[in-house]
Amino acid sequence: MTYQPLNLGRWIIWGGAALLFAAAPHLFPGGFALTMLTQMGVMILFALSYNMLLGQGGMLSFGHAVYSGLGAYVTVHALNQIGAGTFYLPVPLLPLVGGIAGLAFGLLFGYVTTKRAGTTFALISLGIGEMVFACVLMFPGFFGGEAGISTNRMVGQPFLGLTFGPGIQVYYLVALWCFLGMAGMFALTQTPLGRMANAVRDNPERAEFVGYNTRHVRFLQLVLSSFFAGVSGALSCINFEIVSAENVSAIRSGGVLLATFIGGVPFFFGPVIGAIVFVFFIVALSGFTKAWLLYLGLFFVLIVVYAPGGIASLILMQFPVIRAGRWRELALPYALAALAGLVALAGLIGLVEMVYRLSDQGVSTVLQLLGMSFDARSAPPWIAFGAILAAGLASLRAAARRVGERWGAIQLELQAQAAA
Amino acid sequence: MEFFLVQTLNGISYGLLLFMLSSGLTLVFSLMGVLNFAHASFYMLGAYFAFQVSAKIGFWPALVAAPLLVGAIGMLVERWGLRQVHKHGHVAELLFTFGLAYLIEEAVHLIWGRSAVEYRVPAELDGPLFRIIGSQYPIYRGFMMLVSVTVLVTIWLALTRTRIGLVIQAALTHPQTVEALGHNVPRVFMLVFGGGCALAGLAGVIGGNAFVTEPGMAAAVGPIIFVIVVVGGMGSLAGAFVASLLIGCMQTFAVSLDWSLAGIKISQVAPVLPYLLMVLLLIFRPKGLMGTREG
Amino acid sequence: MKSAIELRDVHKSFGTTKIIFGVSLQIREGERHAIIGPNGAGKSTLFNLISGRYEVSAGRILLHGADITNLQPFEINRKGLSRSFQVTNIFHNMSVYENVRCGVLWPAGYRYSFWHRVGGLRDVRQRAEEVMERIGLARRRNTLAGTLTYAEQRALEIGVTIAGGASVVLLDEPTAGMSRTETAQVVELIRSVTEGRTLVMVEHHMGVVFNLADRISVLVYGELLATGTPEEIRANPAVQEAYLGALHKEAARADGSHA
What we know:
Helix content of chain A is 74%, strand content 3%. Chain A is mainly α.
C-alpha cells in the first residue's frame, strides 16, 4: 500500500459497503437469510479483528476466541443485570461492554502471549486458549458450565422504540456495529501503530533499530484487536441469547483462523469475504451433510497450498487483466477448469458421503444424490465415483495448465507493454 | 508411601509417552523449522489403526504395523503437501498442518464415528505387575515404559552412531553444507518427518488402549505436547524430556490428590496446571527450561 | 572535548570463542570515525555491541556520557544512536516512502500512537520528503523497496538510518559491493547526511576511509592497534607492518590515488 490522500474511490467503497449492509435483508428476504446475514455480520467483525493479528501484525493466534468469548460472557451477565434491574444500559450500547471486557482480557493475556513472536506465539496463544476453556468449565458459578448462561435481549425500556425482539432489529444492530468496527479497524491501519505493526511483521529486527519495541507493538495491536473481538462476542450474545464454553473453545479460535485465511490475509477486506464464505459453509452446508467440516477443511488446505493470499487475492489478480481488456481470452480456460473442478468435486462428494453411510452412525447405507440412490455396500458406486474423481482431477490438471499458460502469456505481454 | 511410589511410576510412564510425542515434534521442528500442528492427529491415527489391526489380527502385529502405516502417511504428507507450501514460509507450513489436523479429525469422525471405540489392553498384558502393600501396579503400565524406553534409546543410538543419524544431526544445523556434500536433504526431511509421525503413531498404539481411543484424543493431547515444547525450550530435546516428565508427573499427581485449596479441589484444577506452568515460565524465564533461542 | 561514544575495556566472547579483547576507544562528538581492519577482526561485532544487537561480555559502553551497556536496541536508538547494516536490512514489502517514514515516526514523537492518521502528519511527511530528496530516491517514492536496484537499496538503508535525525550514526560497510561511480556518490551522500553529526563507519574501501574520516581506528583480531588521524595511521609503523601495508598497496592498485 502506498500513501494516498483521502480519495473518491475510498468514499465510494465505504458508501457502497454501508448501502449493502442496509439493503442486504431486502436483497435476500426471508427468515433463514436474515439469520445467516446476522451471523455473517458478527463473523465479519470477528475475522477482521483476527486479521489485525495475523494479517497486519504477523501473529498467528490459535486462541482468539478467548477475547470474543469472555467479552460475550461479561455481556451476558450485564444483560441479565439489566433484566434484573440492577444495572442500566441501553441494549444497543452493550457491545461496548463486550469490547471493554475483551480489551481487559487482552491486556491480561496479551502481556504473556506477545512476549514471543512467530511459532512460539502461536503455541502460547493455543495454551492460553486451552487454559481459559478449562477455567470456564471449572467455575460454573460464573460461566454456567457446559450448558452456559442464557439471557433475554428484550429487557429494559425499548430504546428509541426498539425492543430487539424481531430478528430484523438485531440484524441492523449487528450491521451498525459491524460497519463501525470495520471503519475503526481500517482507521487503525492508517495510524503510526498500524504501520509499525506491518513493519514488525515484515522485519522485526529493523523495527527495533528505528526505535520500536517490537514486543510492545505486538502487545498494543493485540489489545486493540481484542476490543473488536469483544464487540463481536457481545453481538453474538445478543443474537443467540446464550453464551457457553463453546464461545471460548479451540473450535471457535480455529474457525476464525479458517475464515480469515480463506478470505485473504494480505488484504484489509479479505476477512470480510472469508467470513461470508465461512458462515455460508456452516449455516447452509451443515444442513445437507455431516461432512461439512471435512469439506471446509479441504477447502482451507487447498487455499493454503494454491492461493495463500486467499479468495481476495484470486479476485484482485484479475483486475489488471480486466483493465487491459484481456479477460475474454481467459474466460474459456476458466470455464473448463471450473467444469473439471465440479466433476472432481462430484466424485469426491460421492466417495465421502458413502464412507459416511458405511460407518456405524449412518441411518441407512443408501446414499441419495441428485434424485439417484446408491448403496454403499455394493462395489459399483465406489468404482463409479472413484472414476469420476480421477477423471475430474486429471482434466482439472490439464485445464489448470491451460489457464497457467494463457495467464503467463498475458502477464508477459502486459509487462512488455508497461515497460515500453 | 506406596501411593506415592505407584503414582510416581504412573507419572513417569505417562511422561515417557508424552516424550515419545514431543521428541518427534521437536526433532522435526529443529530440522525443518516446521511445527507439525497435526502431530497429535498422527497419535490418534496410530491408536485407531491399532484398534482396527488388533481387531483383525491381534495386538502384536498392530504394535508394528500401525506405526509403520502412520509413518508412511507422514512421509506422503511431507512429500506431497508440506514440500509444496515450503516456498510460502513457516506460517504457511504451520497452517497446512493445522488444516491437516482438521481433516484427520473429520476423517476419523466419518470412518469410526463420534464416540470412543473399544480398543482394549490385550489379555496377556492385563493384570497387576506387582503389589506393594495395598496398591497394585498394572503390567500394561510397565509395558508402556519398556516400549518407550526401548524405542527412545534405539533412536538415540541411531542418531549418534549411524551414518544417517550423523547426516540428520548435521542437517539440523547446516542443511546447505549437507546438501553440498551430496546428501539428499529433502529425502532426509521426508524420513525424519515420517519417523516423527511413526513415533507419534507408536505412542498412539500403546496410549490408545491405556487411556481412551476417541476422536477428541488428538485435541486433548495436542495442546499438552505444544506446551511441553514451549516449556522445554523450542527445539531442545533435553528440555522436552524434562518438561514431559514434569508435566506427566504433575498431571498424574494432580488428578489423584484430593487436597483442596480455597474450596477448589486439586483434581479439578489438574487440566489447567500445564498451561499455568507455561504462563509462569514465560513470565520468569521466557527462553524455556533449556531453550537457547528467544523470539 | 566530550565523547559521543566511549568504549571502556569491552570484551565479547561467543561460548569459548573470544572475539573482542578489551577494546577502549573514545569517539569525539562531531567527528567522522572509521574502523578498519582485516576480515574477522571483529569490526561488525563491535558495531553489534554498540548498537545493542549483542550483549557485552565485559566492559562498558557510553553514549554521550550515559551508560548504554546491554540496553535493548530500541532503547539505544531512542537515545540518539542509529545504525545501518552490512547486509541490506530494510522493509522489503513497503514503498521507499514508507521505509523512510518508519525511521521518522518514533523520533517525531508519534511513537505507538493509534490516534493520529499517519497520512495527515505534515512534519513526518516533510521530513521523509527531505530524506528521500537527499538520498536521491524522491522519484522512486512509491516503488516497493524489494524491487529497487542494489545501489538504491543501499542508499535507502542509509536513508532509513539517518531519517530519525540521530546524533550518532553507525554505518556498516556502506559501499560494499558497489561500482566506482556508485561509491563516489555514496561518499558524497554520507558526507552530506552526516553534517553536524558523529559518524562511525566500518569500511574496507581505503579510498573511502581516507577521504571521509577525521580519525581512524585499526582493529586487528579483536584488539585495537592504533587510533589517530589518517596521517598518523598512515605513518604508524605497527599499522603498516600488521595490516595497512598490504592493504594499502592493494587500495593503491585499485584506486590509483592515495599512494
